[in-house]
Structures are given as structure tokens and as C-alpha cells.
């Protein structure tokens, strides 16, 4: 695999929880994700897969080891720099949609783009409409974020994750709250992002059918990567 | 920054009712602050004016006293050869036989008029007289004044309840009676009153107006006349003055100047601070009270904002977490909540100014009639811009501080904890 094609590199990451007592949650985890790769992380509850995802997302900085995103080491980076990396290079989709209910659907999608500030407001709005159109919810754009259905909300969250054309999209059980029909829709969207847009995807999931259809499965048990 | 402001405004709109309550808190305190200080200071200025307008900053006069050195002491001082003067047993020493006038008054006035610290010089001639009304005599004091100078610098016309100062300035043998005295004498404008001086000379003077200072005892004794009239009344020359009153450019220089002039011209001199020490104290106390009340109100409003923001942050933890997850930094989040607080502060402060100025206008139109101040018909209000500036500055400072602590808390929210907690 070509080094420059690596979007995400993790080298010997260890993580401890200290409260109420010290637990060794992640043990020497190493892994890599290449550009355009659709990877899923599976494992039993409590095996540390979500913990790993939040370290990879740069939101959790309390760990040992090395994490490189797009070749840039993040261990020593300032919090402002990490915020910038999240904004520019990482997109998130959570189990719960986490839309801002005070804003419209369109505005929710636009916020990270406006924060990045690389494009004018009009361009960001245009791009957001394109994404919503791709995801088949352009007609919901002007509605308030709490007036649309659960499946639609998750699609809005995906559009929000895509607005800055990130290198990698991370998901923590993105289909966990959806019925099988909506689950399939979300999977197809992810598939399309990987194949057509050449974006990497790293999805934590319980759903074995979902995992089986991805390019690669990283299976975890008791804080270690086993495959 | 514009993006942060949009987010702040949107959050504000979502919690419109609480935000309005917080802004009304600020508005109320600012309105009270402005009204209270405007009214208090209006009263202060009125009361100070009562004294300050009419009181010279420095007054020069000549008090008749016994000589400091008696001839008997001078006569034996030499023979004692430098030792202490001899002890004598002369008692009941009387004041010198002299006139209560300022020596060289014209020359002193010339010098003072050239002094750059002096705004205005006005001479006075005070005469004790008796008013003969039928068979009774009423004691009185006629102040001979330079009328036009008094009108210009001592607000003489404000206390003239009837009559024209020009009649007093230009007329011969005219007099303005104290209102109380005029009532006793039943003297109307145009009437003639008979005046007897201490030396027994009698003159008829024509009443051209009434003077009311508001102090009843004063108004039963004091009268005003043209200085030439009083000189004529006492049969003294045109350079005969008993007092010289000074108004200075800077009031604070008065005590020092009084000392300097007393030594230089060999006269007595009093300054306004010594003569009216209690007024400054009263003004200061009233100012402290009104500032204290205003500041307490603002602090209470600040606590209101603090509470509402804290609650808002608690309700918006999800939003904060997702903003941070999608690339907003801790300082962005802090700025959003600080902006929220300051927006509440600005809206409250502007509303408070509008309400405050309205209240000031209402107070300014409430009738306030007092014998002490014939020229005042409504409650006094000071519309000084200073209080508006202080109020707005303080409101912004309070809301900033009140917003800072919750905003800092929001910036420290750990998104992982919130998102994983579900």
C-alpha cells in the first residue's frame, strides 16, 4: 500500500480509564485506513471500539501512542489545531443525529462549511443543497431540524459530515437507531461515497450484515485488534 | 465572528422568553440608575446652586478689632532689652475708632481685575438701617450692590420675585425689599419707605421689587440697593466699599487665594469652602447613595443573566458537543455564549436608557413649588450624558462578567462525554 495514500494511521495506542478504578481499555492498537476504503469496526459491547473511534476522531486526547491524520501527527497538536482538523478532514455521523433543533435542515448542513470559511456563504449553501439533493431530501431543506423523520435526520447528519469534503467519515453506530429499510439507504449512501467520491469511511457497528458488505472488517476483542 | 453571532442570535431566539426576562432585568436596573442619578444630581445642583450662586468664592472685608499691639506694650518693649514685654493691667480694650470700610478699595479692585484667576470682581457696601413704619422701627440691612455684575455672576434676577433689575441699576434712591420685610411693612412696588441710618440721617427710598431667598429670617432683614444710593445714604464718597466679592474661574483655588489676598492687602478674607463646608459633605453622601443603589441593581441583574445562561448551557449540552465535534473550538463556543450575554446586555442597556430618559422627563414635569426657589416650578433633573455613559459601560461590564463564567464552562464541555453518554 502506498504510504501517501494512507488517510489514517494508528501506532500502538493504549488507553486507560481511571475512574472508578484503572482499566486498560485499548491495548497496543495499530491500524491504517487508505483513501477510498470502506472499513467497519465490529466487536462485542465494551471491547473498546467506540473508545478507539473517539481517539481517532481527535476529540479524546487522553491516550498513549501515535495518531496521524493525512500524515500529520496529532499527539502534540493544540486544541485549536485539532478543531481545525476535525472541521476540514473528518466528518461524523453518530447513532443519534445530533442536529441543532434551533436551525433549519439546510443551516445544520451549512454550519461546518461556514466555520471552515474557505467558501462564500452562497457557495456553501449551493453545496449543501447539492448534498441534500443527492441524499433525496432536498425538499426538506427549509424545515426545522426537529420536524423530519428519523431516517431523514440521519441523512441530514451525513450531508453535514460531507459538507467540507472530508478525507474520512467516521460513524458510531450510524444505523443503530434505524429500521432495516433506512439502514439500507444509509449503507448505499456510504458505498457511493467510497466508490464515487473516493472518501474513506470508518464505521463502528454491531450489525453483522452491514459489516459484511464493507471492504474490510476490523474485529476487536478486549481492547485488541484481532483481525 | 459573523457566524458565531448568527449562532448566538439563533440560540437566543430559541430561548426568547428567558432572554427577554434577562434583558428586562438589565433594562430595569439601567433605567433606575439613570433616573436616580439624574434626579439626585438635579437636586444636588439645585441645592448647591442655592448657596453657590449667591456666595462669592472669596470675600474680602474689614472687621473692626482692637489693635493687636497696644501703645503701652510698644512704649516699654525697648527698655525690657529684648526680654518679654512688660505685663500690664489694662482691661476692656475697645475696637479702634475706624470706619468698617476697605482701605484703598479702588486700587485693590484694579489689581484683582487683572488677576488671571479671577472671573469677576464686585464691590459691596453694607449698611445697617432702621425702616420707619408709622410709630415702629424695623431693623434692616441694605446691601449696596453693582446690580449688573450681580445679575451676571450671582443670579440676582432669579431671586427677584417682582420687579426689574434695571430699575434698581439705573434708578436713583430705589430699593428692593426682602419679601418678608415688605409684607410686614405692607409696602407695594412704587411706594416710598423711610430709612434711618445709624448716624441718624433719614432718606426716602422707592420700592422697585421684592427679593426672596427662601430663608425667611434673611428675607425679613435683607434689602438691596444700588451701591451709589447706599453711599449717598451714608454720606460717603464713591470709593467707599465694605466688601469686595470675587468669583474665580476655578472654585478649588479659593482657600489658597483667600489666604494670599488677606496677607497681601491686610484685610480679612473668607473662602466659600470654609463658609459652606457642610454642602460638599451632603452632595458627596447623596452621590454615594445613588451610585450604590444603581450598582446593586446592576449586580442583581448580572446574577439573573448568570443563572439564565447557566440553564441555557445545561439545556444545550448536545448542541455544544456537536459544534465541537464538527470543528468549532473551545474558544468559539466561549465566544458564542459571551456574545449571547453581551447581546442581552446591549438590548437591556438601550431599553434602559429609553425608559430612564422617559422617567427623567416625567419627573422633570412634576410640579415642585417651593418658597425657597422662586425660579423653580418642577422637580430638577440633570440630563448629563455622563450618567448615560456610566450606565451603559457598567451594564456591558456586568453582563460580560456574568456571561464569562458560564461561557467558560461551555467551552470546557467534553463532547465525547456527552455523545457517549447517550
Q: Give me the CATH architecture of chain A, please.
A: 3-Layer(aba) Sandwich
Large-scale geometry of chain A: globular
Record the strand order, biggest sheet of chain B. Answer: 2-3-8-5-7-6
As a percent range, the share of helical residues of chain A equals 25-40%
In terms of DSSP E residues, the strand content of chain A is 25-35%
Mean pLDDT of chain B: 85
Question: Rg of chain A, please?
Answer: 17 Å
How many beta strands in the DSSP annotation of chain A? 10
Uncertain stretches of chain B: none
> From N to C, what is the helix and strand string of chain B?
HHEHHEEHEHEHEEHEHEHEHHHHHH
Major β-sheet profile of chain A? 6 strands, mixed
CATH-defined topology of chain A? Rossmann fold
State the end-to-end CA separation of chain B. Answer: 31 Å
Gap between N and C termini of chain A, in Å? 18 Å
- The SSE order of chain A reads EEEHEEHEHHHEHEHEE
Estimated helix fraction of chain B: 40-55%
Please state the structural category of chain B.
alpha+beta
Residue stretches of chain A low in confidence (pLDDT < 50, at least 5 long) are none
- What overall geometry of chain B do the principal axes of the alpha carbons give? elongated
Q: Can you walk me through this structure?
A:
The complex is a heterodimer of chains A (227) and B (422). By secondary structure, chain A is an alpha/beta fold. Chain A has one domain: Rossmann fold (3-Layer(aba) Sandwich), CATH 3.40.50. In chain A, α3 crosses α4. Chain A has 7 helices and 10 strands. In chain A, a hairpin with a 2-residue loop joins β4 and β5. Chain B starts with a helix and ends with a helix. Chain B contains 16 helices and 10 strands. In chain B, β6 and β7 form a beta hairpin. With 422 residues, chain B is an alpha+beta fold. In chain B, α2 packs antiparallel against α15 and α14 packs antiparallel against α15. Chain B has a 6-stranded mixed beta barrel with strand order 2-3-8-5-7-6, surrounded by 4 helices. The model of chain B has no long low-confidence stretch (mean pLDDT 85). The chains are: A alpha/beta (227), B alpha+beta (422).
Amino acid at each position: 500500500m502506498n504510504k501517501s495514500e494512507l488517510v489514517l494511521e494508528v501506532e500502538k495506542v493504549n488507553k486507560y480509564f481511571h475512574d472508578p478504578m484503572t482499566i486498560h481499555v485499548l491495548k497496543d492498537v495499530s491500524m491504517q485506513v487508505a483513501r477510498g476504503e470502506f472499513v467497519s469496526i465490529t466487536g462485542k459491547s465494551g471491547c473498546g471500539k467506540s473508545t478507539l473511534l473517539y481517539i481517532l476522531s481527535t476529540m479524546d486526547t487522553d491516550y498513549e501512542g501515535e495518531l496521524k491524520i493525512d500524515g500529520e501527527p496529532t499527539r502534540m497538536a493544540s486544541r485549536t489545531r485539532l478543531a481545525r482538523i476535525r472541521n476540514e478532514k473528518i466528518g461524523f455521523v453518530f447513532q443519534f443525529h445530533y442536529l441543532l433543533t434551533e436551525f433549519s435542515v439546510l443551516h445544520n448542513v451549512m454550519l461546518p462549511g461556514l466555520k471552515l470559511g474557505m467558501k462564500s456563504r452562497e457557495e456553501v449553501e449551493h453545496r449543501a443543497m447539492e448534498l441534500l439533493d443527492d441524499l433525496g431530501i432536498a425538499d426538506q431543506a427549509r424545515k426545522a431540524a426537529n420536524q423530519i423523520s428519523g431516517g431523514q435526520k440521519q441523512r441530514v447528519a451525513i450531508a453535514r459530515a460531507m459538507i467540507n469534503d472530508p478525507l474520512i467519515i467516521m460513524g458510531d453506530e450510524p444505523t443503530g437507531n434505524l429500521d432495516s429499510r433506512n439502514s439500507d439507504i444509509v449503507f448505499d449512501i456510504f458505498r457511493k461515497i467510497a466508490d464515487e467520491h473516493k472518501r474513506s469511511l470508518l464505521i463502528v457497528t454491531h450489525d453483522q450484515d452491514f459489516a459484511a458488505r464493507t471492504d474490510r472488517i476490523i474485529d476487536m476483542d478486549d481492547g485488541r485488534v484481532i483481525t | 465572528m459573523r457566524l458565531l453571532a448568527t449562532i448566538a442570535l439563533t440560540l437566543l431566539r430559541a430561548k426568547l422568553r428567558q432572554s427577554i426576562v434577562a434583558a428586562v432585568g438589565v433594562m430595569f436596573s439601567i433605567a433606575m440608575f439613570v433616573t436616580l442619578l439624574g434626579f439626585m444630581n438635579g437636586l444636588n445642583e439645585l441645592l448647591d446652586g442655592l448657596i453657590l450662586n449667591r456666595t462669592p468664592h472669596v470675600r474680602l472685608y474689614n472687621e473692626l478689632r482692637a489693635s493687636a499691639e497696644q501703645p503701652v506694650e510698644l512704649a516699654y518693649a525697648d527698655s525690657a532689652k529684648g526680654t518679654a514685654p512688660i505685663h500690664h493691667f489694662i482691661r476692656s480694650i475697645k475696637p479702634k475708632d475706624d470706619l468698617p470700610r476697605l482701605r484703598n478699595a479702588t486700587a485693590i479692585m484694579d489689581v484683582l481685575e487683572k488677576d488671571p484667576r479671577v472671573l469677576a470682581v464686585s464691590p459691596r457696601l453694607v449698611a445697617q438701617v432702621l425702616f420707619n413704619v408709622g410709630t415702629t422701627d424695623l431693623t434692616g440691612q441694605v446691601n449696596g450692590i453693582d446690580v449688573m455684575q450681580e445679575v451676571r455672576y450671582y443670579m440676582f434676577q432669579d431671586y427677584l420675585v417682582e420687579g426689574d433689575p434695571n430699575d434698581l441699576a439705573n434708578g436713583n434712591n430705589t430699593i428692593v425689599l426682602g419679601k418678608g420685610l415688605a409684607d410686614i411693612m405692607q409696602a407695594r412696588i412704587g411706594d416710598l419707605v423711610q430709612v434711618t441710618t445709624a448716624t441718624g440721617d433719614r432718606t426716602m427710598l422707592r420700592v422697585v421689587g421684592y427679593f426672596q431667598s427662601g430663608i425667611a429670617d434673611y428675607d425679613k432683614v435683607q434689602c438691596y440697593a444700588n451701591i451709589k444710593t447706599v453711599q449717598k445714604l451714608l454720606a460717603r464718597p464713591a470709593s467707599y466699599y465694605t466688601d469686595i466679592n470675587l468669583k474665580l474661574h476655578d472654585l478649588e483655588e479659593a482657600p489658597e487665594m483667600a489666604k494670599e489676598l488677606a496677607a497681601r492687602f491686610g484685610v480679612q478674607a473668607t473662602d466659600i469652602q470654609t463658609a459652606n463646608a457642610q454642602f460638599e459633605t451632603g452632595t458627596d453622601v447623596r452621590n454615594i447613595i445613588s451610585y450604590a443603589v444603581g450598582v446593586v441593581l446592576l449586580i442583581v441583574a448580572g446574577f439573573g443573566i448568570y443563572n439564565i445562561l447557566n440553564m441555557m448551557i445545561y439545556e444545550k449540552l448536545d448542541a455544544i458537543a456537536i459544534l465541537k465535534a464538527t470543528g468549532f473550538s473551545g474558544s468559539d463556543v466561549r465566544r458564542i455564549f459571551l456574545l449571547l450575554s453581551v447581546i442581552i446586555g446591549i438590548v437591556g442597556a438601550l431599553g434602559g436608557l429609553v425608559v430612564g430618559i422617559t422617567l427623567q422627563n416625567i419627573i422633570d414635569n412634576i410640579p415642585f413649588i417651593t418658597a425657597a426657589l422662586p425660579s423653580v416650578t418642577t422637580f430638577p433633573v440633570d440630563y448629563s450624558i455622563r450618567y448615560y455613559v456610566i450606565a451603559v459601560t457598567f451594564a456591558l461590564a456586568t453582563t460580560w462578567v456574568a456571561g464569562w463564567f458560564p461561557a467558560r464552562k461551555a467551552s470546557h464541555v467534553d463532547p465525547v462525554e456527552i455523545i457517549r453518554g447517550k
